[in-house]
Amino acid sequence: MSDFLDILGSTALYATAVRLALPILFCALGEVYAERAGLVNVGLEGMMLCGAFAGVIGSHYSGSPWIGALVGMIAAIGVAAIQAGVSINLSGDQIVVGIALNLAVLGITSFLARAIWEGGDVPKVDGFSDFAMPLLSDIPVLGPILFKQGALIYVALVVAVASWWILTRTSWGLRLRSCGEDPRAADSLGISVFAYRWKSMIICGALAGLGGVFLSLGQLFTFSDNMSGGRGYIALAVVIIARWSPLRALWAALIFGICEALALRVQVTDINVPAELMLALPYVVTLIVYAGVIGKSRPPKALGREYSRG
Amino acid sequence: MVGSIFLAIDGVDVGYAMQEILDQAFGSSFAVKNSLIEAVPITMVAFGVTVAFRAGIFNLGGEGQIYAGALASVLVILGLSGVPGPILIVLGLIAGMIGGGIWGGIAGALRSRLGLSEIITTIMLNFIAFWIVSYLVRGPIQDPDGAGYPYTKEIPAKADLPVIGGSIPLGAILLVVAAIVVWVLLERTRAGISIKSLGSGEATGRFAGLRVERTGFAVLLIAGVFGGLAGAASLMGNEGRLSDFFSPGWGFIGVMTALIGRGTAIGTLVAGLLIGFLSNGITGAQSAAGIPTSTAQILIGVFVLFLIIVNTDVVATALRRAASSLKGVRG
């Protein structure tokens, strides 16, 4: 038990937690845009996986993780464009399209990994290595947790704050949200619901792709089949728990980071908890937290509903 | 078509590959048997998805329900090894249905009691079921003679589902029975009316005096029963033991199958059989013609996207818009 408390009190746990929370955070931030505009994007998982894979490809052939990140984002935007086209313009069921995309991306990435590398053995590529920020990393507790990570953590923090500002403090954000609350009223005011929903989905794709890139280039420096492992779905839950707020998403994503980090830490100590059961923890906690907040959160009114003029 | 593009990218002789796939899927009674065995879990879990679809509920929990069902089944079969074969088979299948039903029922209860979206809860329950099974097959119920592999002891041969006439596994007959049950449930019972009226809108259903919560719960429970049966039938018809690599994603392929089947019992049955033949053909041909296994997944995903595009009256809407824009009227 005291071992367990030691782990809970160690800064190493929280540093790992932040690292593991980031891919989920990126996805959740993207999903906030989509859902605020009225789109449920279950394809998040596929976009993330696509980003993770394309990121590795980009980094492998260019030797630069930044190019990899760019390629990952573009590829995920491609998936988002299919999701947007079919669900917005063609009024396909948003959820069904997302599931089909997830399955297709899972197949295509596993296929291409084998087509490019014999047996699907993806080599190690250049990723984002950790570096200590001068001065900031010397702050006790907070320093090692936040300021000794790879570069993408700063991108994540900036995106979270910027997203909050854009969505709640700009007229562009107001218009985007109006498309998720009452698209017909928005349309009658001359706001193009289709255009705003498209933009929100493209942003969502870019951020989910970045989340995937962080998974492959920020943590493991390689790609393995289905490496997103349901994190896209966890991000869907994070958005609900965060009540569609980019800032609250920071905390919500961190909860899951801590669970995952705990599962990893406990495995390497001699605490007598089976590793497999610890690995189930993030999913159990998702359910519990989700159940805890459900009455308090109110989704955008037109969430998940297709919009057609006429 | 899409498939041949992917195959061509990979440098495979497309004509030869197609021939090989057909051969592996239909070529002999052995091939047919294998294709049907492949179709059993996919189609069975798809029936659960189909029933849920009709109620407007997304059962993405097939994967977890398969694991829960197979777990319950393997526990009962290994625990009651003294029971005669036929009874053991029936008990194994029932246990699977109960296990899957419990797992689906949890999602149902979370939905109807607390209002949690089944899209998220079923996915989370998939992972929870997987890790519980993963723990059990590496610990308490691991095969002691299995050289450390993460699987249980093999079930006794008398609990294996028989194959009739060399090519028809009992599981395939269960599929036909299940299709009839789903059809009767949806089209000939009061429960079916409740399910479908929930599907046409919760508010409408409530207005019509439907107990929306209870129906929602029941639907996910029923879906779980089919998922659990898929797990048990696969355990007893093919796998022989439970491992933590038991299901290669049947739960999600089942969702696709139900979509291709367009939410009807017979459609799902036909779609499931087709996918079974397709994936067995591809799996069988992969070594001979050098086709990667994931081709089946890609094909199914792309095919479903295509179906959604065609299904949603897209073409019709586009034509109507084009026509009205010609007349200067906004569609």
Distance between the termini of chain A: 64 Å
Q: Specify the helix fraction band of chain B.
A: over 70%
Kindly report the greatest chain-chain contact and the residue count on each side: A-B, 46 and 53 residues
How many strands of chain A? 0
Average of the residue pLDDT scores of chain B: 85
User: Over the alpha carbons, how many angstroms does the gyration radius of chain B reach?
Assistant: 21 Å
CATH architecture of chain A: Orthogonal Bundle
Write down how many β-strands of chain B occur, each being a DSSP E stretch of 2 or more residues: 2
Oligomerization state of this entry? heterodimer
- Major sheet size, sense and barrel closure of chain A: none
Structure classification of chain B:
mainly alpha
Output the helix-strand order of chain A: HHHHHHHHHHHHH
For the record, the count of structural domains of chain A works out to 1
Strand adjacency order, main sheet of chain B: 1-2
The value of Rg of chain A in angstroms is 19 Å
**Domain count of chain B:** 1
Percent of residues in β-strands of chain B: under 5%
